[in-house]
Amino acid sequence: YLIKRYVGDTQFVIMNKNIDETEVLKNEEIEIKDELNKKLDTENGADKITEIEEIISEDVKLKLHEDSKRLKEEGNTFFSKGEYEPAIDLYSQGIAKCPKCFSKTLSILYSNRSACYMKLDETELAINDCSSALEHDHYYTKARLRRAQIYETKDKLEEALKDYNEILSYDKSCQIAGSAAMRLPGQINERNEKLKEEMFSKLKDLGNMCLKPFGLSTDNFKVNQDPKTGGYSINFQK
């Protein structure tokens, strides 16, 4: 009546779905929980949860979910005290334990951990966690705002603008996103013009170096921009 299944080196005893009168014995289910708790760690716990979700009972999933929420609250306590590394450890444990079917909780855990990484100036890790949070909840505004703000600090203005516009697509009342969506296009144009000027300056220096042996300089060449097409033409002048 009972089927033995293995995930890695862990044995699970589960109910044969084809036999209605059989049940997983309570002590065997407790053993499954104990084995899960032993095997869940911050590096590979999430992968193991994915492997076993299809064969563990709903009660076990609920227990794991409650554990992950408890770890989240403990992490929040450390975060509020400015103790970010212990908070990261607790959020990581919560992520490892939380079954993927509880996507909202996973999204919050990733977002909270990203906040810790921001405080520690680990911006790439913070971006990665914001992205993971959004994979589990596309409309989690807090995670998307945080990622957009980090993009701004790293001068990834186009990526930031994309996130702000995405927020406005489903929440037009978000003032932070609205203000940024109005401000960033001008900043992007200003930055691009500055980069263009720097590029032309470097090209001019290179041109002068090449033309000097011939008694010429880039001043002998006039660059004109076509206002209609935005293209450039170069004319020689003595």
Task: Describe the model.
The protein is mostly helical. Among the domains are: 66-138, Alpha Horseshoe (Serine Threonine Protein Phosphatase 5, Tetratricopeptide repeat); 155-209. It is 65% helix and 9% strand. The strands form 2 sheets. The protein has a two-stranded antiparallel sheet. The protein has a two-stranded antiparallel sheet with strand order 3-4. Helix 6 runs antiparallel to helix 7. The longest helix has 37 residues, at 175-211. Residues 1-30 have low confidence and may be disordered.
CATH C-level of the domain at 66-138: Mainly Alpha
Question: Kindly, what is the distance between the CA atoms of the first and last residues, rounded to a whole number of angstroms?
Answer: 98 Å
Query: How much is the average pLDDT?
Result: 80
Approximately how much beta-strand content do the residues carry? 5-15%
How do the SSEs run, as a string of H and E?
Answer: EEHHHHHHHHHEE
Strand order of the largest sheet: 1-2
Q: By helix and strand content, what is the structural category?
A: mainly alpha
The biggest beta sheet, please?
A: 2 strands, antiparallel
